[in-house]
Amino acid sequence: MKTSIPLFKTHFSRGLFYFIVAALAVSVILRFAWNTPYMHLFTASIIAAFIATIASQQVYFSWKHEGIEIACLTTCCISAFGVFKSSAVHGGLLVLLNAALLGYLVRFVLRDDRKNIDTAIVFIGLLVAIEMIAYSVLPNMYLPIIINPNICAGYLILCYLLAVPRLRDTTFRVVAIVLITGLLLTKSRAAIAIVSLCTAGYWWQSMKSSVRLAILGLMTAGAVIALSTATIDVSLLNRIAWWQTATRMFLTHPLTGIGWGNFGSEYLLWRTVVTENSLYAHNVVLQVLAESGIVGFTGCLAFFIVRMKNIPLRSPHVLAVGGFLLYNLFDYSLYIPSHLFTVFVLLYSADITQDTEPQKATKPLSLFGKTAILTVVLLCAGFLTTNSITQGKQCATRAQSYYKTYTTNGDKYLLAQAIEQQELAVRASPGSAPLRSDLAWLYMVGGNKKTAKHEIMEAIQRDPLNSGYQSSLRQFMNQK
User: Fold this and answer.
1) Fewest C-beta atoms under 10 Å: which of 2, 283, 417, 453?
2) 62: in domain
């Protein structure tokens, strides 16, 4: 016999539903980027929703479920010891905290509302697909979502594969056509191949033998043509170089890595060949190993295993998240906030264990427990927020401001201030070649040629393949 659902709980569930959908939609509209002001505002809203939830609802805790999220976040945060040696941090840990809290809020949303969240994600993807189509027709037109077609491809993989099991519905057939059109227009070879493979795999059991043979024949022919006409293009060479760099980072710091979200800011110090610079390794396994080491990788792997094993194998969530993770072996979509939030929400909304009565397995948290959780969350958010831009980055920014003002009014005091701030930035990140190069130029402008040559030599030592530093050294040597 079913028990009636309290009216307050129904209203609370619906309120959380609207909040979660709004958060996912806004994260996409923010151009897939995460500038610091938006990050702080978004974090404040998620923490406020979290506080309202655990203050008004019966909160249950289980080390088997909630404990794995805490362990995952803790193992990733351990890498913060490496973060503070960097000159630039992009708030990666704070984004991870936001995603975990947003996903956790889904636990307090009723099953019907969770299904509506899944539908909302598909239609958010429809917006991305329409913008991708418009971008292809009018490439010079400003569109708020389009920055990199590959980023759009990652999001469209999630949305399209989430819609595949619902293709018997006419509405979803039309939506799927638009989604796949937008995906094709991204021209991402990896995305198209993975979507094709995942779709065929999902419908494989219900296909006739003749259809299976036809699909196998098409795939075999496609593979033969691709291999026979394959050329080693710049894209592949860049990826190989990024993967090699990430591997070097991991082998040098195997335990805790170089710091979560630090690959891009440290890339120039670790690369072995001159390539296009990248903020990401384009391989989620290598990047997690490079940035958080074995400790962080173990935590992340345990999180995905525990979460996904509670989801039925033929669930659209397994199809969507599985295909998305495969794509991230060749790209970096998981590091884009909007994508990460969507993955966390999907993992929570599909967890069948959340439909059982929690009283049978766990006990509600006491007021003391709720207070402790709030304190930890607020401290972590404050800690990560204040360090999302490190001292080195702030000093370098101030140095640029002082120098710019000096060039307009010639006040040598401002030049001295610029040099002082740049020196502080170098102390915060002694291994940064770009910071040392900028310091060398400031010394040269100030007339300290000997120290300028020393700093540019230090920059060359850390990035010997940079032709710009070599050119600067020649100019310094020719100065009398």
Assistant:
1) 2
2) yes
Q: Of all helices (H) and strands (E), which one includes residue 377?
A: helix 367-386
CB distance 353 to 62 below 8 Å: no
Residue with tokens 């249950």: 60
What tens digit of pLDDT does each residue of 287-312 get?
999 988 999 899 889 888 888 887 87
Phi-psi region of 259 (alpha: psi -120 to 50; beta: other; left: phi over 0): left
Annotate 162-172 with b (16+ C-beta within 10 A) or e (fewer).
bbbbbeeeeeb
Read off the tokens for 350.
Answer: 């599909």
Residues 334 and 406 in one domain: no
At which residue do the structure tokens 């509670």 appear? 310
Vertex 233, ends 232 and 239: CA angle to 5°? 95
247-to-237, 252, 463 alpha-carbon distances in Å: 15, 9, 18
- Contact between 130 and 143 under an 8 Å Cβ cutoff? The reply is no
362 and 424 fall within a common domain: no
Residue from 227, 219, 212 nearest 196 by CA: 219
